[in-house]
Design brief:
This protein is of the alpha/beta class and 495 residues long. 34% of the residues lie in helices and 17% in strands. The chain has 20 helices and 18 strands. The strands form five sheets. It has a five-stranded parallel β-sheet with strand order 3-2-1-6-18, with helices on both faces. A five-stranded parallel β-sheet has the order 8-16-9-10-11. Strands 12, 13, 14 and 15 form a four-stranded antiparallel β-sheet that branches. Helix 3 runs antiparallel to helix 9 (116-130) and helix 5 packs antiparallel against helix 6 (76-84). The longest helix has 20 residues, at 469-488. The protein is globular and about 65 Å long. The two termini are 26 Å apart. Bound molecules: flavin-adenine dinucleotide and iron/sulfur cluster (SF4). Iron/sulfur cluster (SF4) is lined by residues 46-49, 52-54, 64-65, 68, 105-107, 114, 116.
Length: 495
Amino acid sequence: MGKVTGFLEYARQEEAAEAPEQRKRHWREFVLHLSDEQAAIQGARCMDCGIPFCNNGCPVNNIIPDFNDLVYRQQWRQALEVLHSTNNFPEFTGRVCPAPCEAACVLNINSDPVGIKSIEHAIIDKGWTEGWVAPQPPKRKTGKKVAIVGSGPAGLAAAQQLARAGHEVTVFEKNDRIGGLLRYGIPDFKLEKWQIDRRITQMQAEGVIFRTGVLVGSCQLPGGVNNWARQTIEAQQVLREYDAVILAGGAEVPRDLPIPGRPLQGVHFAMEFLPQQNKVVAGDTVQDQILATGKHVVVIGGGDTGSDCVGTSNRQGAKRVTQFELLPQPPAHENKLLTWPYWPIKLRTSSSHEEGVSRDWAVTTKRFLDDGKGNVRALVAARVDWQQDPLTGQMRMQEVPGSEFELPAELVLLAMGFVAPAAPVLDAFGVERDGRGNARAATDGAAAYRTNVEKVFAAGDMRRGQSLVVWAIREGRQCARAVDEYLMGASVLPR
Ligand SMILES: Cc1cc2nc3c(=O)[nH]c(=O)nc-3n(C[C@H](O)[C@H](O)[C@H](O)COP(=O)(O)OP(=O)(O)OC[C@H]3O[C@@H](n4cnc5c(N)ncnc54)[C@H](O)[C@@H]3O)c2cc1C
Ligand code: SF4
């Protein structure tokens, strides 16, 4: 423990950020990391708890008290080693993770948690700036070949671990660039894409082969799933040519809203809208780009994806942005004694919300209205009331009679989550699905991450359903160990 009285002396310090009016004018990241001194003070607040709940609250089990202490002592290089020992890509999580570790921090019971995420952000940025993040090619090659389908954080984490264990790893990606939702879901203003490119260079130097524009398991993908593949490879060919296969294709099938007017021009899935802007920022030309410029935009869905649509719409110059959520507005503060150390349900205001949006809660959208030329011009919505069923305890929704209202809407973005992975990809490999349509595979025991098909494993959103970057990294790492054990009979990779 760095400073015994640190938690009594110092307050939590948030990272500085560019003002909303300025940052709305560009697509760059706008959150600055803490200075060395500020990070040291934040590290000094850590109590080095006997039972560090932060470590358990973190899906990759970051060894948080240790790097907090090292940063307090300004031993940055050692802090980086500790951080990298559990997390391949702290520059991603240090930017986009919601930080369940902070919800679990013991200091959060009666004070503000240690700024763990800001310390992580500071460590990894310093690591890259100082040139400490270098390729770690294996000393020996095993001669085994592993195919990874999908280049999101799960596929990338698995690839890096397996390449470092000496296997020949090929990552197949149907889209034109590597990164999964890091590349084409999360906007640049939250994660600039050179951060991914830098890791790809490192991984190539470690032996990972990347093949973009290749759809594995030639099949017809469901509507709403992006596919920019120029080439397909049959699942059987992959099975023949590789000693193990990891399916890490994400959960890409979006939840639709099949109400009257859905086919109108101007009603789009979020994942039709967001990737186009990321492509434009990357320098591509997008024909007939879906744009919010000068429009009344309504985002349906109150989660992260919806929030990214808000930030993107504002940067494109929307006239007004409204965001609907079906659930009632959560309380501003959680009852910590009831929720700690778990992730609490409370009102969360994202940086995109700060930039301007009208948020409306407990609203259901009933139909989209036509402008007479096939374009959406407005929507009709109604208020709903949520009551607990006295018998089952489940929350039930009822429309409030007479509460219908009309709202101008020239662009509607559906951001209501993702229902499942694209089933045809799993079917192509003969992989069984669980009740929610995800690839069926356990995470523990001798068959961890193994599907019902010999030598086929599954990880990330494709196995667990729509989730978070940090969970995808965890699953990629754990799956890599399972594959290494399968191929070699034993593994020294961490779980
Ligand atoms: C808009 C948006 C914003 C988000 N923001 C955050 C955030 O701020 N913080 C956070 O923690 N999480 C966020 N998430 C969730 C997070 O991005 C995902 O949980 C995470 O990326 C899942 O990682 P993955 O590797 O399992 O899959 P993905 O990132 O979905 O990657 C899967 C990849 O597999 C490819 N693929 C699929 N099938 C095939 C095939 N047959 N052949 C070849 N390639 C294939 C896909 O093209 C895709 O690139 C967000 C999600 C969205 C949609
Ligand atoms: S729970 Fe909070 S105070 Fe305790 S070790 Fe973790 S970061 Fe430090």
